[in-house]
Amino acid sequence: MFVHIFWQKLWLRNWLLSSCCSIKYQFPFFVCTYPSPTPCFGRQQDAQEFLRYLLEGLHIEVNRVTKRPHPVIPDYAAEDRLADREKAEIYWKRYLAMDNSEIVDLFVGQLMSTLECTECGFKSTTFDPFWDLSLPIPKKTNVNIVDCLRLFTSKEDLDGNERPICGRCKVRRRCTKSFSIQKFPRILVLHLKRFSGERFRSKMSLLVDYPITDLNMIEYASPSCKYILCICMFLCLIIP
């Protein structure tokens, strides 16, 4: 139902009629042939994989970027001296220079990754686009979506062989890594990681409770984030 309604809205837009008039007829074929080029079709993660496959396919068809710009080598040293909001804007404009469509307007957000050195306290930030957030499930009873979001945004220790090079110390140091949302998409897709990362993978059948309304995401946003979330989607279930 969601795909059908969303497709109708796209088709009714004037820009779609003028730029991609053949998509209306290609779409049923696009969906029907999905299993063919996708060997992993049939596994438990089909809902998330199909949604990503569908959205990326639509995005490619309606991408406003028709001519790829010449690659520019970023000045990372200069960017690191900027405030997080300015730096995030540069990263976002760099992404839109390659991928810019109504699909991106609705579904793509920006994630901020923060590395902090435990020796000198130096922080470095990077910004990456995301189409959905894959949330880990805590190993406890009575889990809700807030628990999953808090685990996703909690600090992770990087020690031993995982120690990164501190930008100030210039040597490998024990650091902490954390994620926060810099830019919310208008429709946020949350994917629950129900498979363990252990050697013998097993599916977690634990029920995860989530609110139908009033899911406050401010706690998981970066300090410089602009909060514009309209809809939250769990896998392929749309929440009104």
Automatic annotation (TrEMBL):
Keyword vocabulary terms for this entry: Hydrolase, Signal
Ranges of residues in domain USP: 1-240
UniProt keyword annotation of Hydrolase present: yes
TM helices/strands, residue ranges: none
Reaction catalysed by this enzyme: Thiol-dependent hydrolysis of ester, thioester, amide, peptide and isopeptide bonds formed by the C-terminal Gly of ubiquitin (a 76-residue protein attached to proteins as an intracellular targeting signal)
EC number: 3.4.19.12
Matches recorded under SUPFAM superfamilies: Cysteine proteinases
UniProt-recorded Gene Ontology molecular function terms: cysteine-type deubiquitinase activity
Coiled coil region boundaries: none
Signal peptide, first to last residue: 1-22
Gene Ontology BP annotations: protein deubiquitination
Keyword Hydrolase assigned: yes
Entries under PANTHER family matching the protein: UBIQUITIN CARBOXYL-TERMINAL HYDROLASE, UBIQUITIN CARBOXYL-TERMINAL HYDROLASE USP2
Name assigned to this protein: ubiquitinyl hydrolase 1
Gene source species: Fasciolopsis buskii
